[in-house]
Amino acid sequence: MRAYDSLRRRGDFARVTRRGKRYAGSYLTCFVADGRRQTRVGITVGGAVGGAVVRNRLRRRIKAILDRYPLGAPPWRDIVFIARPGAGELRFDELAAEVARAFRAAP
RNA sequence: GGAGGACGCCGGGCCGUCGCGGCGCGCAAGCGUCGAGGAACGUCCGGGCUCCAUCGGGCAAGGUGCAGGAUAACGUCCUGUCGGGGCAACUCGAAGGAAAGUGCCACAGAAACAUACCGCCGGGGGCUUCGACAAGCUCAGCCUGACAAAGGCUCAGCCUGACGAGAUCACGGUAAGGGUGAAAUCGUGCGGUAAGAGCGCACGGCGUUCCGCGGAGACACGGGCGCGGGUAAACCCCACCUGGAGCAAGACCGCUCGCCCUUCGACAAGCCCAGGAUGACUGGGUUCGUCGAACCGCCGGCCCGGCGGAACGAGCAAUGUCGCACCGAGGUCGGUCGUGAGGCCGGCCCCAGAGAGAUGACGGCCACGGCUUCUUCGGAAGCUUGGACAGAAUCCGGCGUACAGGCGUCCUCCGCGC
RNA sequence: AAGGACGUAGCGGAGCUUGGUCACCGCGCUCCCCUCGGGCGGGAGAGAUCGCAGGUUCGAAUCCUGUCGUCCUUG
Known about the structure:
five-stranded mixed beta sheet
């Protein structure tokens, strides 16, 4: 089990992106809202980012990066990442830096 | 050595650490095991499977279109035929029918489908001109005669006749020539003819539902017969094929709601009520059955025809179990039959999978590529942020498309050497 | 999974049914006139692989096949 659960329903995504705090990078946008009982994460990669292979790999890499953060303990949050075009061409460490920038802005 | 053709294949490998999904074991921690592709893609065809319809006929709609074969099936594949391309290996082709009918063929051209503008030819009609001829009349000249009559000769004019030529008119014949066009009635030559024409002949081309021969057949060869365009990826004709939907199919379970079970007549039976006498019988009512009619519904393109009058229909879903992760038109190896696509037999293997959906990060070594340096030209060392197209969601068979780099086999042509 | 529409000049559209001058319209663009200058107005002009590749035809934007892209519908 990962330290966080997945955000699945459309309504949850809408709530986080509308009510949560927004931290925008050049390739990733991150929304953070208060959660309960567990931290949940959703990752949105639109069709404009690339083909299925690119979108899948990008999502997996973000999940691998999140494994480095202590999300299995409070405070519980609901987090949504939205990838923008060009994110699929980043190397892994560049992507990790993008995530780190977003999390520095949202402690 | 160079140029080219066909077919098949790979899509980096091994090891380790952390992380993810399924399954199995375990009380648990955890352990074991498996875990994307040749195209998983596009969704262009064909099937398996599931539900609905299913008795037949007709029409419509769609598709396919050389032959034989392969296959569960196909619009796929194989072998061949014909036609186009290539010196060749080989390759490409929606490759039935245009004397069943309809439509269209711009511009140009006489004319684009059944015709004839110019031209050529024939026999005619009238016309007038010309030519030579004949007859007649008139005038003139000359000769004989006598300055007469008469006769003869020459020239001119008029008229008539028949002939030839010319132009013209309509009729008929013709399709060689003209010149346009993508395309003009099969091409060239000779004969032939009034002029011409496949009208005849020779060679060639095309068609053929005729005959012979070869072949399983497409078709080929020989003969006979015929020779008025094109377009069917225009309508169409012919032959063959196709029931409809789709795994969000569908099955089971849960909850809620809606709606329906018709009318008339005849016959037979039962029951009830009234009259009659408690019986026979008569009248009424009702239930079930059969038949007929009406109405309604179904038959999922329509009609004929058929079936039925009972069950169904709709909604609620973060949807439970199954379908569903597979013993399968399965993979692989070998044998065998076949030119081949493939068939058959045997051994081995079990090989992703669901809850919106599991593969990512890092390190080491090797192979390949690139760059730099060295070199005894064999190679060696170092560096490397180089490695395509692309991700299963019901499953198969094809087709089509994308793809860094690389490998193998066979064949053709050209050049050189032996 | 099933089905449908579209692609034509810088932009928005017509032409496709029934093939025939390499294609029309509006806005925009260039030049000229008008004005002191600009706009408006008037005149002239340029600009097109008809998404791409094949095929049918004498001839294709139009017909056929394949392919690429965009958008939409149903559950």
